[in-house]
Amino acid sequence: MQALLFDHSAPGNLRLGSVSDPEPAADEAVVRVIASSVNPGDLYLDATPEGSVPGYDAAGVVVRAAADGSGPAVGTPVVTLGFAGGWAELRAVRTGWIGVAPAGADLAAVSTVPVAGTSALRALHRLGPILGRRVLVTGATGAVGRYAVQLSRLGGAYVVASTGDPDANGDQLRALGADEVVREPGDLDEPVAGVIDVVGGERMVQAYEKLAGDGVLVSVGHMSGGGEHFPALAFSGHDGRNNRSITSFFLGAYAGLSTDLSWLAARVADGTLSPGISRREDWKNAGTAVQALVEGRDRGKLILDIGQHA
């Protein structure tokens, strides 16, 4: 089969080449990949072994069902999560990490769900009930942030979105469901019950300072690249700020991801959630497109078109 392979000598460290078809384990189905969305984690290609196939997210159609009888049948449109192998014509993936997509769904749009959508959804699960409560989302214009804003609004929260450029991004974020848009968490006038933090660094410290008593901050990403330096008494419970907490999670350790993937795919397919695609490229041009992202010459959600429906 054809696949995008890590190659130091190629543009974007990627080249199209041939590899053996995957040999699935008993609990894995084989999927013919139609599209894959590119995540920030996919861009750290220097840590990827030479000749390996990157790609976390992929959507396509099952061509070989799992031998143990689990998962969807042959011919089912699906969305899949994995830590590699998404940028190939065929992908073997454990059935617990496969979600069913609605018939006729745009699989390019659905392919944005695995990392970004499930990370946002699981982070909100960690916050607990949010109906009628104030929730802050940092890094709100990123893929996880966009889904977190939309899902928070669906959950009935008053949504505050933090973005580095409120003037440029404010209208977009309000259209996604944000009630309020700020530049930094420190700009908030009122405390929040929960935070979905995708930025880390100083933004995370500021966000934690805005937590009300019993509030929870869920750390999902670390876009800032800097460390967190909390001031003295930041973790004390004075002034009504008792029992605040910071938590995180590892997506790959969760059971039940297939349910999340299927639910999110349906919401994208019916228009409830916007996938935020900014660019689609034939995977033959992946190296150039990925290089533009790494160098900051292009921004937004990139989709690689890998195959077509049979």
TrEMBL record:
SUPFAM superfamilies per UniProt: GroES-like (SSF50129), NAD(P)-binding Rossmann-fold domains (SSF51735)
Cross-referenced SMART domains: PKS_ER (SM00829)
Chain ranges of the Enoyl reductase (ER) domain: 9-304
Pfam family, one: ADH_zinc_N_2
Molecular function, one GO term: oxidoreductase activity
Name used for this protein in its record: NADPH:quinone reductase
Species of origin: Lentzea jiangxiensis
Record lineage: Bacteria, Bacillati, Actinomycetota, Actinomycetes, Pseudonocardiales
